[in-house]
Amino acid sequence: MEPRENVIGIVLAGGRSSRMGGGDKCLRALGGKPMLAHVIARLKPQVSDIVISANGDLSRFAAFGAAVVADSLPEFPGPLAGIEAGLAWAAANRPDVAWAVTVPGDTPFIPGDLVSRLADAAAGATMVVARSDEGVHPVAGLWPVGMAGDLKVALAGGFRKVSRWAEMQGAAEAFFAPVEMDGGQVDPFFNINHPEDLAAAEALLARARSEPS
What we know:
By secondary structure, the chain is an alpha/beta fold. The chain has a single domain (7-210), classed as Spore Coat Polysaccharide Biosynthesis Protein SpsA, Chain A (Alpha-Beta Complex). It has helices spanning 35-43, 79-93, 114-120, 148-156, 162-168, 195-210; strands at 7-12, 29-30, 33-34, 49-54, 67-70, 99-104, 128-132, 135-144, 172-175, 179-181, 184-186. It is globular and about 45 Å long. The N and C termini lie far apart (35 Å).
């Protein structure tokens, strides 16, 4: 496949962020701009469209210039519901697109070749998930848009775990090595769950920017 033209990007930003004290974790400042802006900046060149999966008042994401969709189920049912909402948007609005890549809204260092690497691993596979030295990252994956209907049925029946769903589909894996940053190595799917994670990411960005070009 030609990744950019045939893939929608879905950024998952609908969680409660309880470990960060609540609110929109992805809208917290990182390097002088919202964390979500970093994720979108890395993903946008790799896909044809960006969709933000969120909950609550969707207008708070208007400044990002992307479509915003809410879960089809209430009460924050989890990332699988956000994936389903994004796939349903793609099926309704971009019927010419067959695939979607999902990324969490709290992973500001996602690889610049994420989509192409996932696509390379897709031959003969129903879907593909990312793996790094830290383990499997099922929320960072390549999903067929046509899976939206099956996901909707599963969610209605109480199914919630992304990792289990990927296992059931026989998902292939694409391995991503640590990336060089600030003279050290960082997992490309480093995610910000706690205030100390945000501080670490801030320090990484600050030191990277201070390095001579």
